[in-house]
Amino acid sequence: MFRRHRRLRKNSVIRDMVRETVLNRNDFIYPIFVTDGDNIKREIPSLDGNYHYSVDRLHEIVDEIKEAGVKSVIVFGLPEHKDELGSSAYAEDGIVQRGVRKLKELYPELFVITDVCMCEYTSHGHCGIIHDNEVDNDETLKYIAEIALSHAKAGADMVAPSDMMDGRVSAIRKKLDENGYKNVSIMAYSAKYCSAFYGPFREAANSAPKFGNRKSYQMDPANVREAMLEIEDDIEEGADIVMVKPALPYLDVIRLARDKFDYPLAAYNVSGEFAMVKAAAKAGLIDERAVAMEMLTSIKRAGAGMIITYYAVDICRWLKEEM
Ligand code: PBG
């Protein structure tokens, strides 16, 4: 005797019925890059099909998002001005702050998340304040909290610290609460690895470090127990959602986090993961749509309840077609 597994694969009705993991448009968060300047819609060479938008042209991507049925975005900024202290990151009229106001004006129901970090705004490209050639953790916390507050003031629904300083979640929570933003939530990039998969993003956001690397603050790709400690601390400090990033090379970390913590879990399907699929598709090696679907299904199957991906708009369109 043997079990006939193939009975439940006989046709699409029964396959659909026994499917364990189903993607839907609630799962996806789309990254948006807002740039200083006017009348700009500039293709991002490293992220095929994604663009830099100036505030006055944000409506173009908002229309696409609406049409596809994407419900949530994460905003990144490309400022004109960079300095040692990343001052345009927390300026009231900074690029993210203006972008968020515009997004909320164009589409009030859109759930707007902001990436809270300093690397796009500092002249040295590191995620914090430099003292003696090192990123000073505790000094940086003051700035990170100010950035988060300025995003909340602009209308962000959720802030997402990606700097990897210790104690940032409690610093942000305290700052938001003291200023009357108790209902602005925090999605912490908790287990953020020092990954080579961020290359295309750093080109897109012009945020590569000018000296050294990020190994003294982002996690070692070899570690998984440490990731659980990072997540545990962020939960204790008041994060509402915790994240593992990147996604595809870290599915084991996602699965362990899912099993260990009864907490909302996000994963970031990062730029390098996206770019690899795009490049292979362009070379005619794979079926882009099928591979993208499979990749995102595997991230959800591993345990991520929500996924940040440059495929969000495409995926939501494809899911609509399948309905
Ligand atoms: C900012 C930040 C990065 C990413 C998200 N937020 C880059 C980095 O840490 O260098 C990467 C996203 C991606 O690769 O898609 N710190």
TrEMBL record:
Keyword presence, Lyase: yes
Keywords: Heme biosynthesis, Lyase, Porphyrin biosynthesis
Gene3D superfamilies in alphabetical order: Aldolase class I
Top-level taxon: Bacteria
UniProt pathway: Porphyrin-containing compound metabolism; protoporphyrin-IX biosynthesis; coproporphyrinogen-III from 5-aminolevulinate: step 1/4
Top-level enzyme category: lyase
Record GO terms (molecular function): porphobilinogen synthase activity
Keyword GTP-binding: no
Protein EC: 4.2.1.24
Cited InterPro entries: ALAD, ALAD_AS, Aldolase_TIM
Catalytic activity line of the entry: 2 5-aminolevulinate = porphobilinogen + 2 H2O + H(+)
Pfam families: ALAD
Subunit record text: Homooctamer.
Role: Catalyzes an early step in the biosynthesis of tetrapyrroles. Binds two molecules of 5-aminolevulinate per subunit, each at a distinct site, and catalyzes their condensation to form porphobilinogen.
Family named by the database record: Belongs to the ALAD family.
Protein name per its UniProtKB record: Delta-aminolevulinic acid dehydratase
Organism: Clostridium algifaecis
Organismal lineage: Bacteria, Bacillati, Bacillota, Clostridia, Eubacteriales
